[in-house]
Amino acid sequence: MVSSTNPKFKQLRVAVVGGGLGGLSAAVALRRAGHLVEIYERRDFNVEVGASISCAANGTQWLREWDVDIPDMKPVILMKLVMRDWETGKILNQYNLDHYEEEWGNVYNMLHRQDMHATLLKAATSSEDKGTPCSVKIDHICESVDPEAGTVTFKNGVTVKADLIIGADGIRSVVRGQIGVVPDMTSAPQTCYRLNVKKSVVDELGLVKYSYDPAIQFWGGIQGKNGRSKYYKIVMSPCSDGEIVSFYCFMPTELTKHHEEGFVFEEVPVSDVIAGKYDELDPDCVNLLKNSVDRMPWRLYVHQPYDRWFKGNTCILGDAAHPMMPHQSQGACQAIEDAAALGIIFSEKYNFTTDVTAGLAMYQTIRKPRATRVQSASARATENLNERIGFTSLTPHDASLAAAEGKLTINEMNSYKMHSHVASEVEKLGAGLGPTIAVM
Ligand SMILES: Cc1cc2nc3c(=O)[nH]c(=O)nc-3n(C[C@H](O)[C@H](O)[C@H](O)COP(=O)(O)OP(=O)(O)OC[C@H]3O[C@@H](n4cnc5c(N)ncnc54)[C@H](O)[C@@H]3O)c2cc1C
């Protein structure tokens, strides 16, 4: 049992289905809030792919609040967004982030996914940190959930009972179907290849050193000359203490040779990436791509927002709840925000531990509108790079115009206060509404 200053606080048994970045974040947040968490992962724990992930201030904020060892994730701190010409590499536009931390209170970290995953797993399971260490069960493929009875059944025949079930099982979520959501989705008109170039290779071969600048750099993403589609786009950023330069290379889906579903573990030849209008790409960038490793395709899907995120004592989180195109670099940050909301709602500050379903209704109220805004802004940024957070805020004047047009701005992402949002929504429930929920 946990000791709490709230006599109504009840320690919950939490089952997290899926041990990706979202599931691990939820595990850490709920462990910190005083609950007993079990994580069920279908594979072993080498689940993350070898590519970069940007964690903007709105994600970093929660990693700090949970006391996660961020330096252990070997971050590179972002200082610039740079837009380059597809054919020449000439800088077209730049957004300087020198004052980012000063302005938003947290840095923008560029991480390697495997480093981020490993550190979150440590934070979830370490016996030294606050809260009971989470336990982890691998080779548990979720087959069904009963959201009313609070049970999860796995393909290996095991059934577990929990007070709160979290479906963090990604874009092809099984849990989502079990709460009655049928996704309205289409295959995206754009496909991605991810690949990495080692910094040592850049140095040895005399490739362009600006590739490992602490920046996210883009080529393309806008309609180009000779009918070049806006779906040709490259995103480059360093990670892993600057030792790896990571690339996401996009192209129109009809050009890709890779239409298979699911993960593809075989490295693809560089010729599969340098296809179509890649023959017009900046030669410095082509040289980087030619010296890459870990080249893998990544199919993309466009999902319309779901009408619900919970049923009974079961909710969905991360890509299971709001899969989005990658063009705002916010998918994982939004999963971290989901986890943070659950940690706050089921903390001893409120009485939702006595009524988990009411707590999940609050979770949906807090998280669905914001995540849906990011999801649709990510779809818009697929069509127009100027819709990307950062480029919508090149000057304060632009930022207010962008906000007035409904575009997503850095201000909206980073000045959001989730603690006060939850407090004000709980207050609205008022006496007699919902369960006996009161702010202490
Ligand atoms: C090209 C690209 C670039 C991106 N860049 C960024 C970025 O820079 N910044 C950012 O914030 N986001 C980014 N994202 C988004 C981010 O990768 C995802 O939003 C995030 O990884 C989702 O995490 P998740 O834990 O919800 O899902 P997943 O990572 O998919 O994890 C789901 C987990 O559940 C497990 N699982 C699945 N089914 C079952 C089952 N039946 N039973 C048990 N376990 C199961 C899986 O094995 C996996 O471990 C990017 C996405 C793409 C495609």
UniProtKB/TrEMBL annotation:
Keywords assigned: FAD, Flavoprotein, Monooxygenase, Oxidoreductase
Highest rank taxon of the organism: Eukaryota
GO molecular function terms noted in the UniProt entry: FAD binding; monooxygenase activity
Record Pfam families: FAD_binding_3, NAD_binding_8
Classification via Gene3D superfamilies: FAD/NAD(P)-binding domain (3.50.50.60)
Domain FAD-binding: 153-375
Matching InterPro entries: FAD-bd, FAD-dep_Monooxygenase_BioMet, FAD/NAD-bd_sf
Family from the record: Belongs to the paxM FAD-dependent monooxygenase family.
Protein name: Salicylate hydroxylase
Source species: Lentinula detonsa
